[in-house]
Structures are given as C-alpha cells and as structure tokens.
Amino acid sequence: MTGSPTRLLAWFVVLSSLLAGCTAAPDAETQPTPSSTMTLPAAGQIDQPLPAPSGLPAGESTPAPPPPTQPAPAPPPLPGPFALNLYQEGDFVPQYTFDWCVAASIQMAHNLMDDTGGAQWAGRAQQNELWDMARARSSNSFNGANPLGWAQVLTEVGLGPYEVVSIPDYQDALRTAARAITETGRPVGLVMWSGRHAWVMSGFESVGDPALFTDFSVTSIHVLDPLYPHGSGQWGPSPAPNSLLTPEQLSTQFVVREPRRWSSGLQAGYLLVLPRQA
Prior knowledge:
This protein is of the alpha+beta class. It is built from six helices and seven strands; from the N terminus they run αβαααβαββββαβ. Strands 1, 2, 3, 4, 5, 6 and 7 form a seven-stranded antiparallel β-sheet that branches. Helix 2 packs across helix 3 and helix 3 (124-136) packs across helix 4. The termini are far apart.
C-alpha cells in the first residue's frame, strides 16, 4: 500500500507535462504590426476630417500665395524742345511787283513742298499767271487777290487742299499753324498787315511736339516775306528769308484783320491760309 501514492503522483506529473505540450504557441507571423503613418479612425468615425498637413489645425486650408507686385506706372512724358522747318536754300522767291505777293507766296509754297530741288517755281511769267488766277477767284478784292483766291489757287495747282480760317486768339493762331505744318508737311499762309500782304510760314520752334501734346507752346516762327528787302514804312522792314521771329516780333505785322476790306463771312481774327489733310 505504501507504493501506490507514489505511483499516483508520478502519473499526475506525466499527465501535466502532456497537457502543457498540447497548448499552441503564438505565431509570430500573425501578430499585428503597428502603423508607421497614422491611426485610422475608429468604426463610426469615418466622417471625421483627417489631420491637416504641415501642422495646420484641422479644418483649415493652406493659404494662397500673395499676388505678384505690379510695377508702378511710368510718369507721362514732359514737353521738350521741338523744331520743324520746311525751308531749303533756294525756296525763296521775291514778288516782281508790289501787287504780286500772293502769287510769289504760291511759288514759295510749291518750292517748300518740293524736296527734289530741281523744279523750282520762280519765273516772272509764271508769277504773273498765278496772280491772274488768284485775282479771278477773289471777290470784293479791289481788283487784287485776297486770301480766298490764294487758297483756291493753291488747291487747284495741286498743292492743297487749303482753306482760309480766322482765329481770334493770337497764341491759338500760332498753335493752329504749327499743328497744320506738322500734320501735313506743307507751309501756312499768313495774312499780314490786317489783310494787305502775304507771308509764308515755313516752320517753327516750340516746347512740345504738336503731334504729341495739345498744350504745346510756339516759341519762334520761320517766315518768308516776298517783299524782302523792301519792307513797309508803316509796318516795318521785311525779315530776311527764313528768319526766325519770336511771337512778339511777328505780332508787329501779323495783326487782327477786321472784316471790312472784303466780304468773306469770317469773324475778325488772325487769318491763316491753312493746309488740310487731303
């Protein structure tokens, strides 16, 4: 009887070892691996926003970059010195009688427009013919030629179109003449001595190009007086051909013409025989 408990204890030891060996060890390949990026939301939280990138709080977006800086606009140009003169040596023609100033001015207008230098108008017979044409196209001219005939002949002989204008303000008249020369490349006729004489304006100097600025100012004027070198005892000496006169010098002979010598329908003012765009 004493050996039975001992055998029974040994049996329980063997049975415990067998039961322990039947328990499965955990499989290393089936163990879950922790996420290396972020934790997925739990079930029922799939509508929650994901964490914002770059450390921004949830619900905020990356701000847009500021717009590029625009350069400041350039300041408008300022008027500067400007000069234009159509005159070339040989363009001047004297009037062959004390009456033919309009005809001589027409000859000079042609020469100022002709850049070839080989077709000068300067003959006495031609000047007489132009005088007769201008006188025939002038009304109430006391048997002479007036600015209307002057403008019409310039147009008919192919130098136009020209028209007569009257401008009440002196500075405005100078600007109008300068602008016309700039735009057309043709000279302007100046009705001098209150309607009794004809000069040609061939160019000018100014502050500001008339083609670019409306507020330019004329500082000097190039003129041709066909009566040179005689001049007038009442109005003063004739300037030399292509003289450059200040507005003050020109104003001693370029004066307002009152509408009493011939019926033109024009108001009192400074008369110009003005070239227009064809």
